[in-house]
Amino acid sequence: MDVLNQGHEQVVFCSDPESGLRAIIAVYSTALGPALGGTRFFPYPSEEAALADVLALSKAMAYKNSLAGLDLGGGKAVIIGDPRTDKTEALLRAYGRFVEALGGRYLTACDVGTYNADLDVVARETRYAHGRSEAYGGCGDSSVLTAFGVYQGMRAAAEHVWGAPTLAGRTVAIAGAGKVGSHLVTHLVEDGADVLLTDVDQAALDRVQARYPQVKTVPDTATLVRTAHDVYAPCALGGALDAETVDVLPARIVCGGANNQLATPDIADRLVERGILYGPDYLVNAGGVIQVEDERHGFSFARAQSKATGIYDVALRVFRTADEQGVSPAVAADRLAEERMRSVGRLATIRLPR
User: Fold this and answer.
1) What is the dihedral of CA 187, 188, 192, 194, to 10 degrees?
2) d(C-alpha 261, C-alpha 93), whole Å
3) Which residues contact 119 (CB under 8 A, 6 or more apart)?
């Protein structure tokens, strides 16, 4: 893979053989501020696969932070390994040393395979670890506002498609009953929606059904996307929207918490052709990064939730811009994010007196 042509400012390969640390930190842009993005701990099949993922995720974080109105650039990190067996104090602290060495250009937080308690350990070696546990004054579980933001994006999509910002009476199919998916179920049930749910972890499905017996489960995602529903919410790993899935999808709206949902860029146009409104993933799942960013100012959940409510208005703007410009919502969102990176980012060239 040609890293130099990906548009990133910096890519750092981190290795500490004694602790077993193998990690990659990618800084896509610092035009709006330090690059904030989580650390993903995942058993990638190869270093090349890890590199491809971190490059895509870090770029998405730059666009996410821009569109969310945050004074932050975009970055991401991946640790190669199985978090169930490879995660140790020494490894996390070694990783923290590499984050610290970047001097604040990259701010890290939680992602797949990492949790608040892990960031508490990373923070023992760096000032630039966020998304920490509440015991240390952190924001706690950022999936709470990630799900809330997805719900706001879904409300905006419902307003755009059906003329009312509610999912009441609609069927929402959620792929993924993890942290984000399970919180999303709560918002939808309270709104009066019917929920279909699937996950590879039966225990996760059982936990949701124990709380909401009315939620119906299906055995796998292949079955879910062919079952009648109005809204499809991918809330697991990326690449959920490929040509095969889109061609059979009965939904009018796609809006979920997973990152990098489009398997290839042309899928955005295929969704338009099928009359399916797509809520760009990095727009609607920005609630978590809003929650983490608020930690930098002395965390207030009420303040962070108020900011995340704004995802509704931004999503409506994206949908309307897409219609006006005759492009997909994915393209409209990219254009709005890029414009803010240009217009606000250039202000750094105005020199202030020392």
Assistant:
1) -160
2) 31
3) 108, 109, 110, 129, 130, 131, 132, 133, 138
Q: Is 180 annotated as belonging to a binding site?
A: yes
User: Does the annotation list 113 as a binding residue?
Assistant: no
Find out whether 179 is annotated in a ligand binding site. yes
Question: What DSSP element (H or E) covers 110?
Answer: strand 106-110
| Average pLDDT over the chain, rounded to an integer | 95
- CATH 3.40.50.720 assigned to domain 143-286+312-339? The reply is yes
Closest-CA residue to 29 (of 352, 342, 333, 351): 342
Dihedral angle sign, alpha carbons of residues 108, 61, 42, 177: positive
Domains 3-59+72-136 and 143-286+312-339 share a fold: yes
Q: How far apart are CA 79 and CA 204, in angstroms?
A: 25
CB 15 within 8 A of CB 22: yes
Q: Among 201, 205, 278, which Cα is nearest to 237's?
A: 201
Active site residue ranges:
76
Whole-structure pTM value: 0.89
Local confidence band at 353 (pLDDT 50, 70, 90 cut-offs): confident
